[in-house]
C-alpha cells in the first residue's frame, strides 16, 4: 500500500459502510479518519473511535487555527476532518480512508487541488463514488432494512438522487450491484492508483 488519501462517498443504503469495513479488514495499512463533531455521543459510541467529541468552543478554536481539511455544520452541529492525523499516516507511508459525503468530498478535493504538487495529500489523493444499482433498488434496500419511516426513506431517496447526479465529480465510480464484485473493483482501483504514487 502507498501513501494514499482515499475519499469514499455514497448515498445512504449504497453499502459504503460495509465496503469501508471490508477495506479496513483487508488492508491493515489503511487507517480510518476519525471525524470531529460537536454533537452528543450516542449510546455505544466511543470517543476517539467513532468520533472525537468536542465542545463548540474547542471546535471553533480548531477552525480558527486552520486545523481542518474540511468541516461543515449539519443539523446545528459541526463535523470536520483534521489535517494532522492524515499527514501523520501518509508520512508513515500508509493510507488514510475518509468516509465523507458529497459536500465534504467537494471541499477536500478543492483544498487538495490547491496544495503544492509535492504535498503528500495531493500526490496520494483519490476519490471513489459508490452508486446503488438504481433508485428503485435503493428503495427496496432501505425498506427491507426497516430502520426508517416512509417519509425518512423518501427524504433519503431524494438526497441519494441529488448525490448520484454529482457522481461524475469523482475520479472513479463503482456500482454496488453485487457486493463481492463491487468490493473487488474498489480494491483494484486502490491497488492501481497505489502503483502511481
Ligand atoms: P451522524 O451524526 O449521524 O454520525 O452524521 C451526520 C452527518 O454528518 C452524516 O451525513 C455524515 O456524513 C456527516 N459527517 C460525519 N463526519 C463528517 C466530517 O468529518 N465532515 C463532514 N463534512 N461531514 C461529516
Instruction: Give the overall average pLDDT.
Output: 95
Beta-sheet strand percentage? Answer: 15-25%
The number of strands is: 9
- H/E series: EHEEEHEEHEHHEHHEH
Strands in their spatial order, largest beta sheet: 2-7-1-8-9
In the predicted model, the low-confidence regions spanning at least 5 consecutive residues are none
The CATH architecture name of the domain at 4-33 and 93-194 reads 3-Layer(aba) Sandwich
What helical percentage do the residues reach? 40-55%
Distance, first to last CA: 10 Å
Overall geometric form: globular
The CATH superfamily of the domain at 4-33 and 93-194 turns out to be P-loop containing nucleotide triphosphate hydrolases
Cofactors, ions and other ligands in the entry? guanosine-5'-monophosphate
Amino acid at each position: 500500500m502507498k501513501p494514499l488519501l482515499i475519499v469514499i462517498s455514497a448515498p445512504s443504503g449504497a453499502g459504503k459502510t460495509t465496503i469501508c469495513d471490508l477495506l479496513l479488514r483487508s488492508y491493515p495499512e489503511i487507517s480510518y479518519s476519525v471525524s470531529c463533531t460537536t454533537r452528543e455521543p450516542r449510546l455505544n459510541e466511543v470517543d476517539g473511535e467513532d468520533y472525537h467529541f468536542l465542545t463548540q468552543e474547542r471546535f471553533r478554536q480548531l477552525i480558527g487555527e486552520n486545523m481542518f481539511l474540511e468541516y461543515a455544520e449539519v443539523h446545528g452541529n459541526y463535523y470536520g476532518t483534521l489535517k494532522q492525523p492524515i499527514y501523520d499516516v501518509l508520512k508513515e507511508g500508509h493510507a488514510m480512508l475518509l468516509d465523507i459525503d458529497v459536500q465534504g468530498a467537494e471541499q477536500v478535493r478543492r483544498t487538495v487541488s490547491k496544495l503544492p504538487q509535492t504535498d503528500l495529500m495531493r500526490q496520494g489523493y483519490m476519490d471513489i463514488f459508490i452508486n446503488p444499482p438504481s433508485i428503485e433498488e435503493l428503495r427496496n434496500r432501505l425498506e427491507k432494512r426497516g430502520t426508517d419511516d416512509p417519509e425518512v426513506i423518501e427524504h433519503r431517496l431524494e438526497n441519494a438522487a441529488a448525490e448520484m447526479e454529482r457522481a461524475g465529480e469523482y475520479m472513479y465510480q463503482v456500482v454496488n450491484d453485487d457486493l463481492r464484485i463491487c468490493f473487488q473493483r474498489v480494491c483494484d482501483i486502490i491497488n492501481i492508483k497505489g502503483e502511481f504514487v
